[in-house]
């Protein structure tokens, strides 16, 4: 019986975070190196791992989540291997290496607890969304895991003059140093995008990347707050 299943066995640990297949995250847990993860994302673990929902560090930042921006988080601590997933979504693992990333809360699966993070206003979009749009920014030396509804594409903006346009409902994350602005095209509103009922895109320019999923999720990608 074991032989046909051998190909699905966990591989030896090589990094703090890594994929086990396309839809599961494996985290090497160590005492003193805690993890913040989406509540309900644990599917299995080995060793001794404890969980604390809504820890004080999260509650402090969550005061800015007036209308529910951000995903409920739990602190994971201990020693062992932790496996996380989010309803079969693809998992994307990123080692920030001192850089930062701006993430839609619905695509945030887990990140190292020692990283700097918080909710921030997406600049350049206020005139398109009333009071503006908000996202979660994470930065520092450590690991982040994102989810994508299907295999994502990572677009390198390249620092040129040309802009990269993305449907907000397909947007996963982007480099926070990119310039962001909104664009409407009423002539093509029946052909481009499906989330808002009109042709509204986000335009990115500068040096950095944009992560786009092949799905226009019906949930709020960027939460509008009053």
Account of the protein in words:
With about 230 residues, the protein is mainly beta. The protein has one domain: 4-Layer Sandwich (Double-stranded beta-helix). About 5% of the residues lie in helices and about 45% in strands. The chain is built from 2 helices and 18 strands. Strands 1, 2, 3, 4, 5, 6, 8 and 11 form an 8-stranded antiparallel β-sheet that branches. Strands 7, 9, 10, 12, 14, 17 and 18 form a 7-stranded antiparallel β-sheet that branches. The longest helix has 7 residues, at about 55-60. It is globular, with a radius of gyration of 18 Å. Mean pLDDT is about 80; it is low at about 220-225.
Q: Just name the CATH architecture.
A: 4-Layer Sandwich
Roughly what percent helix? Answer: under 10%
- Rough outline: globular
Strand content range: 35-45%
Weakly predicted, low-confidence segments: 220-226
The CATH H-level superfamily is Mitochondrial biogenesis AIM24
* CATH hierarchy, class: Alpha Beta
**Could you spell the SSE succession in H and E letters?**
HEEEEHEEEEEEEEEEEEEE
End-to-end C-alpha gap: 57 Å
* Rg, nearest Å: 18 Å
**Could you give the count of β-strands?**
18
Query: Which structural class matches the secondary elements?
Result: mainly beta
Helical element count?
2
For the biggest sheet, the summary is: 8 strands, antiparallel
Number of domains: 1
Q: What would the CATH topology be?
A: Double-stranded beta-helix
Average pLDDT score: 82
Organism: Streptomyces monashensis
InterPro entries: AIM24, AIM24_sf, Trp_RNA-bd_attenuator-like_dom
Pfam families: AIM24 (PF01987)
Protein name: AIM24 family protein
């Amino acid at each position: 019986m074991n032989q046909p299943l051998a190909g699905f066995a966990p591989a030896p640990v090589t990094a703090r975070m890594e994929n086990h297949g396309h839809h599961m995250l494996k985290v090497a847990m160590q005492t003193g190196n805690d993890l913040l993860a989406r509540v309900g994302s644990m599917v299995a673990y080995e060793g001794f791992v404890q969980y604390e929902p809504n820890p004080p560090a999260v509650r402090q930042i969550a005061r800015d989540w007036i209308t529910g921006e951000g995903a409920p988080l739990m602190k994971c601590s201990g020693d062992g291997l932790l496996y996380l997933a989010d309803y079969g979504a693809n998992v994307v693992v990123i080692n920030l290496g001192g850089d930062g990333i701006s993430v839609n809360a619905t695509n945030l699966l887990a990140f190292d607890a020692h990283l700097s993070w918080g909710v921030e206003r997406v600049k350049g979009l206020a005139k398109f969304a009333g009071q503006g749009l908000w996202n979660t920014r994470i930065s520092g030396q450590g690991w982040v895991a994102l989810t994508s509804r299907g295999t994502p594409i990572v677009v390198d903006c390249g620092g040129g003059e040309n802009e990269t346009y993305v449907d907000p409902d397909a947007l996963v994350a982007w480099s926070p140093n990119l310039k962001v602005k909104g664009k409407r095209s009423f002539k093509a509103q029946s052909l481009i995008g499906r989330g808002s009922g009109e042709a509204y895109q986000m335009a990115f320019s500068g040096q950095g990347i944009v992560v786009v999923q092949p799905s226009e999720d019906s949930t709020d990608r960027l939460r509008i707050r009053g």
